Amino acid sequence: MTNMRQEDGTIDAGGHPVVIGAGALGALNKRIGHLDPSACFILGDENTLHHCLPELLAMVPRLRDAETIGVPAGEASKSLPVCSDIWQHLTTRAADRSSMLVCLGGGVVTDLGGFIAATYKRGIRCIHVPTTVMGMVDAAIGGKTGIDVGGVKNMVGVFHDPVSVHVHVPFLRSLGKRELLNGVAEMIKHGLVRDADHYHALREAPLHDLDALIPLVERSAALKADVVREDPREAGPRKQLNFGHTIGHGIEAYSWEGGRSALLHGEAVAVGMICEAWLSWRKDLLDRESNDLIAQHLLSMFKPFRIQGGEDHRIIELMRNDKKNNAGQFRFALLTGIGSVKVDVPITAAQVQEALEHYRLLVREP
Ligand SMILES: NC(=O)c1ccc[n+]([C@@H]2O[C@H](COP(=O)([O-])OP(=O)(O)OC[C@H]3O[C@@H](n4cnc5c(N)ncnc54)[C@H](O)[C@@H]3O)[C@@H](O)[C@H]2O)c1
Ligand SMILES: [Zn+2]
């Protein structure tokens, strides 16, 4: 069921609304007025406080008295020591249960800030204002929060719905190209699993042109909201979004090992989508032309990733550690066409290896 976007740009993501488009920050200002918190705190990282905060304060006058809390940019901030600093900071500033946290940033800031809001004094309200493509179309929507412990990503976390999410795409102006494409990989996934028109529009769009990107980011945010509304606590349908992620997570973890050049999540998912589209074809679910189109498209966007022939077993081992996979076998979300997906398709380790071999052939140097 497709989400109806109301005239003011609001869509329902189940546990919270997502306000998208030109009115997003105006709506944030109004909402803060209604909520009337005892105090507002703005959490950001060094980049978002520099690039996005001035525009936020200009467009949301009710935040002008808010205190800002800055964390270093990067995944390392999703950690217990950083949480501890923020909890203590909030205590020093006498933040009480009717205080509110506004999380201004990418997935790191919204995951971390959501977790802080869920836990400080047994829970305070938070609002997400995503500033990366990844944040706008994925991380900020759906109420999943988390931090990393002992090198394991998202090991500790809870579901904590924000009061609302406000997607103001012009924040992307200052985002680097690599980070932009990182999030576009998730948008491509949204099209591939749910919306063929969206996929083809993304394939044809000049991605460096923010004006062209705005409606596409908004469409992807709406698609993510749809899936979350159908399945707020990941009981089933949300598994559709795992397309590209089963092998992608293995590739991502592998890229962090032994001095390899670490891939961003979306870059690893792009490799995963090429492998998993091929598996979809191999399982007679997807036609050959669609598979070729997807592979060609993703290879034209992302640099090839080199996997040594003898190391597939390591990627498969890392896939087994992923919380989504049971010990014995892999269950994939595979494409049944461009724009449709089938979940829980069983795949063996030998088939994963064939898919990796296929990718290796595609990117081999002449
Ligand atoms: N909760 C979920 O459902 C969910 C979903 C997907 C990803 N995530 C999490 O999201 C995180 C990744 O998010 P991300 O890719 O947004 O990374 P990120 O938050 O680290 O942002 C990437 C980089 O861009 C910078 N940046 C952010 N906005 C900017 C802007 N407008 N201009 C200039 N620089 C800007 C940041 O400072 C950072 O250096 C991971 O920790 C991942 O686990 C969570
Ligand atoms: Zn992802």
Task: Describe this protein's structure.
This protein is an alpha/beta fold and 366 residues long. The chain folds into 2 domains: 10-176 and 204-230, Rossmann fold (3-Layer(aba) Sandwich), CATH 3.40.50.1970; 243-362, Dehydroquinate synthase-like, alpha domain (Up-down Bundle), CATH 1.20.1090.10. The protein contains 14 helices and 11 strands. The chain has helices at 24-35, 46-51, 53-59, 80-92, 107-119, 133-139, 177-194, 196-204, 210-230, 245-255, 265-282, 288-301, 312-321, 349-362; strands at residues 10-12, 17-20, 40-45, 67-71, 100-105, 125-130, 147-149, 152-156, 164-167, 330-337, 340-347. The strands form 3 sheets. The chain has a 7-stranded mixed β-sheet with strand order 1-2-9-6-5-3-4, with helices on both faces. Strand 10 and strand 11 (340-347) form a beta hairpin. Helix 5 (107-119) crosses helix 6 (133-139). It starts with 9 loop residues before the first strand and ends with a helix. Bound molecules: nicotinamide-adenine-dinucleotide and zinc ion. Nicotinamide-adenine-dinucleotide is lined by residues 45, 47-48, 51-52, 73-75, 78, 105-109, 111, 131-132, 134-135, 138-139, 142, 144, 153-154, 171-172, 174-175, 179, 182.
Number of domains: 2
Please name the CATH architecture of the largest domain: 3-Layer(aba) Sandwich
CATH class of the largest domain: Alpha Beta
Strand content: 15-25%
The profile of the biggest β sheet is:
7 strands, mixed
Tell me which ligands are bound: nicotinamide-adenine-dinucleotide, zinc ion
Structural class: alpha/beta
Radius of gyration: 20 Å
What is the CATH topology descriptor of the largest domain?
Rossmann fold
Shape summary: globular
* Strands side by side in the biggest sheet: 1-2-9-6-5-3-4
Helix content: 40-55%
> How many helical stretches?
14
Averaged pLDDT: 94
Q: Report the strand count.
A: 11
From the N-terminal CA to the C-terminal CA, the straight-line distance is 46 Å
Poorly predicted runs of 5 or more residues: none
- SSE order, as H and E? EEHEHHEHEHEHEEEHHHHHHHEEH
